[in-house]
RNA sequence: GUGGGCGUAGCUCAACGUGGUCAGAGCACCGGACUGUGGCUCCGGGGGUUGGGGGUUCGACUCCCCUCGCCCACCCCA
């Protein structure tokens, strides 16, 4: 049997309503917030990711799906969306064309990782990005927006909004060396992964899961206590705005984010209910990214929601279901089928969801079983006699009431009844 | 890349520990009881080369080896 590739999952019809609910709900909110949709390609030149996400991150080092096309170019399936959106912003000079630079995007991402609960090789993210504004009020708006999205999805009780500030070009390096000094003094107590992290990305030691490392990092200097006055002011002001907006959050000095491009405010929506991969959404400010990728110095901030992870929470909360058909047409014999099929089409065009049995040799009993199984509200029963006499039997499947309806009046009948 | 768990009908699982009743049940599916009327009930039916390959044995779903796949966790991250 041919099976799907590891880490690539079918989203079957019964699950689709959850994804639609999420995507449609979020789009509705974002449009009101003044965001516009953008769609970017699945493939990019590999530099798009190397120059943005960071050459020493695992994503770029070992998790990208790369390929050489027939012209010898090295391309990569996008492991995340922000880099591509920035590429598009620069390439299309959107900053000169759009008065407001607020974009959203939803689509599949690809990372070659070992699958586990809440982690796939192809997964879906819903991205939100704002460019060109660097104001605490905007940062608060973006963070608040994320919370409101969860609220509107009805899953805000399942997540915790955590926020931190990573500092700027000035204060981050100072903090970093402070941290390295501290960690070096405790080196023996750290796990082997953390010893490695110390060299590559010391900030990441802070979110190690190892209990012993956690004990050590509890004592570590906290970035938010070592911000320069400007960053401190900005962080405080952002939190102020969040308070004004009534958004619940907690400051977590341990969140550092994995991508190199983050600067300033970073935040995560965390859940304890979806396995070890607890981030349902995450984001932050990236003020140098556009410039680093060869564009003008435009600041940015954004976040991504993991759709599969959000669906996991949604499933705990409510059953989103698709619409059942309204009418099932049971047809006994060729004549009945030929008479009813145009009517089925007419009703469908009027927006009434109908289903007809195509095997008209099946017993009425089995056709009624099907009507019941698909949860149709009405069954229309037509046999040879009915066709001859010009009427048909309409049965209300719930009340079991039946009436005769003239065939030429069927469409009008259902228009009335279904209005 | 590393570790642990698991692979028996479409689904959930039993039979494997002491190899030798048949490879079984529930759900789902199809049909009948009701010659043209669903859900409940009763009755019947189709379906499995027990993930694949090799070995031990008179005999393996059951024991051994290899392989593939899935799941969970580490790593990393949405």
Question: Would you kindly provide a written description of the structure presented here, covering whatever features stand out?
Answer:
The protein is of the alpha+beta class and 419 residues long. The chain has an 8-stranded mixed beta sheet. The protein has helices spanning 16-32, 46-50, 58-62, 82-91, 94-97, 136-153, 171-185, 192-200, 211-219, 229-245, 289-292, 307-317, 334-349, 364-373, 384-389, 410-418, and strands at 36-37, 43-45, 66-68, 74-77, 102-110, 122-131, 160-165, 250-251, 263-270, 279-285, 300-306, 327-331, 354-356, 378-382, 391-396, 402-406. The protein starts with 15 loop residues before the first helix and ends with a helix. The protein has 2 domains: 16-170 and 228-317, BirA Bifunctional Protein, domain 2 (2-Layer Sandwich); 327-418, Anticodon-binding domain (Rossmann fold, 3-Layer(aba) Sandwich), CATH 3.40.50. The mean pLDDT is 92. Helices cover 39% and strands 20% of the residues. It binds one RNA strand of 78 nucleotides through residues 1, 3, 6, 57-59, 62-63, 79-80, 109, 111, 113-119, 123-126, 193, 204, 209, 257-259, 268-269, 275-282, 303-310, 330, 332, 363-373, 379, 381, 383, 385, 393, 395, 397, 400, 402.
